[in-house]
Amino acid sequence: MFVYIVKRILLMIPTLFGVMFVTFVITQFVPGGPVEKMISDIEGYGKGGGEVSGGTVGIYRGASGLDKEKVEELKKLYGFDKSPAERFLTMMKNYLVFDFGDSYYYNRSVVDLVLSRMPVSMSLGLWNFLIVYGICIPLGIKKAVRDGSRFDTLSSTVILIGYGIPGFVLGVLLLVLFGGGSFWSIFPLRGLVSDNWAELSYLGKVLDYLWHMVLPVTAGGVGSLAVMTMLTKNAFLEEIRRQYVLTARAKGLSENQVLYKHIFRNGIIPIITGFPGFFLASFFTGSLLIETIFSLDGMGLLAYESVLNRDYPVVLGTLYFFTLIGLVSRLLSDLSYVLVDPRISFKAVEG
User: Fold this and answer.
1) What is the pTM of this model?
2) Where do the domains of the chain lie, and which CATH numbers do they carry?
């Protein structure tokens, strides 16, 4: 297994390099880079009669636009005075030590910016993860055991309807119904906590936080509930129909013994092996639409704003970090196969 892990880690290097190279090349052909956007902002602000502040004071000259020297200063400020190859190699060198530079738009360190947005995405991801695995596994097992029954049919209908409703549509519907939109004002409309959160007691802070999580977690988790429930049902249903189950029943074992002693440890394998990837994805990714609807400043909204504002340090820095997280999660998923299923071995791969 050690040799396999080393090979996978070595394979991550060209994969990560390739992803960053392709993305970097694409950004070079996107019209309106950070320099052009800054020039547009300065000219638009100057034409509006305002005074341009900061390092751009005196750059604007009315209808004549920007001086060429000042444009070159802007290019040097953003590092665009160097060749693309030099900029890419410098970027990758810094990324190896997790130095992602500073944001063009927010004028903050990319690391600090990501850390400030991470609690929102981690909160949504944590509860989504706990609810999905906490509900879907027992529900999927029960549906497999009672396959074809009225319970199976009704529950499948409900979860498939939920799956068919987009998360942002459900989010708007929940706000209208329970957020004071047109009916009941039960849950808060925006934010992760209330404005007076710091003044609340410890128990009050916990309850206030949970109260704010109800609507966004519900809107973002319904789709995952349907997928994981059906995956669990199908995995266990396949095991129930195998020959060893008939043999176990013929030996006189009770249904609970057959289910939890034999079927469970085999049927749970496809679910457990997806655990590392789903766990990491839940913690470090965000949902743009859910965050926008419920006014949550998370990773999804940050990614969208960064692309919109041509904030390349944030775009490329977060891409590097999350690509690395994704590659590690895939490795952990593969290794989990060996841990939960002793029939699987990497010896043939190593050979």
Assistant:
1) 0.72
2) 35-97 (no CATH), 110-350 (1.10.3720.10)
